[in-house]
Every structure is written in structure tokens, then in C-alpha cells.
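User: For a reading group we're discussing how well predicted structures match intuition. Take HAD family hydrolase. Before you show the prediction, I'll give you the sequence so everyone sees exactly what went in.
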Amino acid sequence: MKAIVFDFDGLIMDTETPCYDAFREVYREYGVDLPLETFAQCIGTSNDVFNPVTYLSECLGRLIEEEVVQEQFLAKYNAKVESIELRPGVLDYLEAATRLGIKIGLASSSQMDWIIPKLKRCGIADYYISVRTKDHVTRVKPDPELYLQSLEALGVSGSEAIAFEDSLNGLRAAKQAGLHCVVVPNDVTRHLPFAEHDLLLNSMKEKSLEEVITEIENKSC
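Assistant: Thanks. Here is the predicted 3D structure of HAD family hydrolase, as C-alpha cells, for the group to look at:
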């Protein structure tokens, strides 16, 4: 295996659980519940698939100004997300890949100015040879464009790379681009029906990167 490509939100840092919690708190202020399975539609992709503000308006039967809801959401979300650390095992995998001479990329449907400051805060920005985000493509996940660009930037084929994802949209994008895919769900995505993965882990602490690579290479033989 020559490369690994990480998703960001929910995989490197669990920003998705506080995102859901913040939106759910806003919904409750309007007397509406936000089911997890409904919110999960937008995980790993854009709000074009599911817009929480539009859905709230539909539930209330009246138009809600998006700016107002976003302001309420951000006040809650920023307070929750500012102290979030790396998910368990992430640093171990980055260090192992570097030690093994495996190239490291990142492919995310989020924007660069959201991702880079957090990578720098956690001291892991320099591990990545390639970072591809919403800013680089016309279509985000589940479209494979982010992963196809990552493969090109890393100089490897899909069969030579492993994607690490936490969402269905990310899994679909990785598989369409021809990568192997390891799913490491978080609290928000754990209930989703991951069917096409090559390996499912509860945490990156469950197996070392070397063990993951060996298992996937054995399955590919």
C-alpha cells in the first residue's frame, strides 16, 4: 500500500456530534425535534442534500430566516467545537504511515479555511502531502472527484490507497474512485448501514495501521 487518505470532519476530529447536538438544541427552542437519521443525510457532503434550516421551516410550516438560525446554531456549535481534540488513534496512524514511507492525503467536503487551522492547532498539518477540499472541486462527496484529485496529487492508483471515512457519503466517494475504504464511525454515524467497506473499526485504536494494511492486502489477493 502506497498511500492513505483521511476524511476530516467526524474522522480526524469528531466535529459532527457537536454539530448535530447544536442543531438539535436550536430545533428544541422552536419546539421541534431533529431525528438523527434525518440529520445524517448531510454528513460528509453539502447542505444541498439536506438543509437543516429548510427542514426546520418545513416542520414549522412557515419560513424561518436562515441567517437567524445559523447565528443561533453557530453560537452553540462554536462553544462545543473549540476544545475538540483528535480522535483516538489518529496520531498513531499518521506517525506509522510516515515511518513506513506511506504518503498521506486528506479529502474533505469542508472548506480549506475550516480544516487547516484545526490541523495546525493539533500539530498534524505537516503530515499531509495533499489536502483536497470543497474549494478544489465542483462536486463534493459522494461524488468521487475529491478522491480522484487526491490520487493524482499523491501519484498513486486507487488500488494502492486506503481511504479512512466515517460517513456513507465518504465511503461511496472512496469506492467510486477505486480506493479501499476503512470506516471508523462516530456517535452520529454509527447507526448507518455501511455495506461496501473493506474494514469497519470502532476506533483506530482497535488495530494498528500495519494490521489494517495487512488485512486489506490479504483480502485483495
